[in-house]
Amino acid sequence: MRLLPGRNRDWPASPAGQIPAGRVELRPLGTEDEHRYMALRVLNSAWLQPWDATTPENPDPRDSSASFRQMARSLGRSARSGIHLPWLIWFTAQGGTPQMVGQLTVGPIIGGSARSTSLGYWLDEGHAGRGITPFAAALAVDHLFFERGLHRVEVAVRPENVASLRVVEKLGFREEGVRLRFLHIHGAWRDHRCFALTREEIGEGLVARCRGSQSGIG
């Protein structure tokens, strides 16, 4: 398993699994996803704006085809080098057709003695509350620990983001404290509550934990 920059032979990878509401799949993000992605972002612009990453130089970024293509190309190169794993979240309801419903990105992946990374995610407002995000995160974490040999995964959440806090709590992430002015979000430097898991803490994995708990995928 490759943990340092170099050709990533484990990519693309598409972890998937079933929850009561339907099938959840992580598919690698690509330039061919532009139109679906842009439509989903426009539909969810107000829902996502308070949590969107920004920079001091660009405190109010706008989604555009050019910005998507730049992101897709950059993350694609980074994925092939083993530094990021950029996934789109797809969901298929019982008897339905697959729909793109969000995004989950892992990175940067640090090898060597750290063997750690972080993950971030967002979901379509219309699909919130069905257990999709916790299960998507569980798929990603299990892939990182069992397939890529990482030892630690972190998630940073704004204290005001109640929905995202529910995700890490359901999955059993351990809170480690508050990082002041940690990331530039929605036009300003924002504090974040930080959560983590190590390989020793997850037993048979987070997917198994979700399926073994009635509240784990709600």
Short description:
This protein is of the alpha+beta class and 218 residues long. It has helices spanning 34-43, 45-48, 65-80, 132-147, 162-171, 206-211, and strands spanning 16-19, 22-28, 85-93, 99-106, 116-123, 152-157, 174-185, 188-198.
Largest sheet: 8 strands, mixed
CATH first level: which class? Answer: Alpha Beta
With strands numbered from the N-terminus, the spatial order across the biggest sheet is 1-2-3-4-5-6-8-7
The tally of helices reads: 6
State the separation between the terminal residues, measured CA to CA.
33 Å
Average pLDDT, rounded to a whole number, is 92
Structural class: alpha+beta
* Beta-strand content estimate: 25-35%
Shape by Cα distribution: globular
Query: Which architecture would the CATH scheme give at its second level?
Result: 3-Layer(aba) Sandwich
Q: Strand-and-helix sequence, N→C? A: EEHHHEEEHEHEEH
User: What is the total domain count?
Assistant: 1
Radius of gyration equals 17 Å
Number of strands: 8
- Helix percentage: 25-40%
CATH T-level topology: Aminopeptidase
Runs in which pLDDT lies below 50 for 5 or more consecutive residues are 214-218
